[in-house]
Amino acid sequence: MRAQLCTRIDKIENNPLSYETVDDPRPEPNQVLIKIKACGVCHSNLHMIEGEFEEFGVPTKLPIIPGHEITGIVEDLGEDSKGFQVGERVGVQVLYESCRTCEYCLTGRENLCLSRKATGEVVDGGYAEYIAAPYDFIYKLPDNIGFEEGAPLFCPGVTAYRAVKRAGVSFGHRVAIIGIGGVGHMSLQFAKMAGAETIAVDKSMGQLRLAEDLGSDHSFLASDVENYVSDAGKVDIVMVHAPSQRAIEQAIRIVKRGGVILMGVLGDVRIIFPYEYSVISSVIGSRQDMRETLKLASMGKVKVRWAPYKLSEAGDILLRLKQGQIVGRAVLTP
């Protein structure tokens, strides 16, 4: 099969990806072989390739095939795999597999399992034509959702859904979403669904236009939002999805006392003790979170903004993502 291999840790400008022909994967017992139809391009793919996850031991091997938001068709079934048939439309999310037996797995929090494996970071991912994955960690794609549209649901979709739940967004809350990218444009929609007044914040007018199209109540350039909250009042919840320390520092300035800062990115948060705000984090999503995300999407409750590109263009698309030129989600198609 053809695949994009990350051959070394390096800046994306130095072309660390190599588009090659490699052996097709074979489904092991309890696995399903999937012919990939689409794979979303995530900012964390870029972080991994450029070495920002090395402190966490990621990637665990080189070369590795990146990509973790995948849709496709069941091509073959390994021994003892259950619940799927050849030809079914399915998807794979970031959470490739967990141990299934620890306290986190047994309480529906597989995303916190200490032995969890991340697609495209621990095992080969979706920048390819095929992937083999455990049958109990893949999901049926609803009939009314296309492959390209559906792929981003398996990372920004489920990540945003869990983040909004973790932040406790509810009716009457004023919620600022900093960073209207892949995850941010989904968090905006889930926050509105929960009954919040939404404030979209970004450095890009293109991203803010996307937010307005999706129904944001207010939208501001990052340089202007602090003037707005000084007049209208600080916000109950800030969701940080921009991979920027400046965004985190801005979140501290615009959240009200006793409010919540939801960290969807890596960074340092300065705790101001008398303000009594809560800082919480959220990471990917459980299997149940994934099922609920797909159900809401199948009901038309949220929309994915995506644009298709060829698998061979992965390096160029990651560079454009780094430069802030991608609106919504870029999706690679083999």
Map the helices and strands.
Layout lengths: L1 E5 L10 E5 L9 E10 L2 H7 L20 E8 L11 E4 L2 E3 L5 H4 L10 E2 L11 E5 L3 E3 L6 H4 L5 H12 L6 E5 L5 H10 L3 E6 L2 H9 L4 E4 L3 H8 L2 E6 L4 H10 E9 L14 E4 L5 H12 L7 E5 L3 H9 L6 E5 L1
Parallel strand pairs: 10-11, 10-13, 11-12, 13-14, 14-15, 16-17
Antiparallel strand pairs: 1-2, 3-4, 3-8, 3-17, 4-5, 5-9, 6-7
Helix pairs in contact: 4-5, 4-9
Keyword list:
2 domains; Quinone Oxidoreductase, Chain A, domain 1; Rossmann fold; about 325 residues; 10 helices; alpha/beta; about 25% strand
Plain-language structure description:
It is a single chain. The protein is α/β, with parallel strands linked by helices and 334 residues long. It has two domains: 204 residues, Medium-chain alcohol dehydrogenases, catalytic domain (Quinone Oxidoreductase, Chain A, domain 1, Alpha-Beta Complex); 124 residues, NAD(P)-binding Rossmann-like Domain (Rossmann fold), CATH 3.40.50. The protein is 25% helix and 27% strand. It has ten helices and 17 strands. Strands 3, 4, 5, 8, 9, 16 and 17 form a seven-stranded mixed β-sheet that branches. Strands 12-11-10-13-14-15 form a six-stranded parallel β-sheet, sandwiched between helices. It is globular, with a radius of gyration of 19 Å. The relative contact order is 0.16.
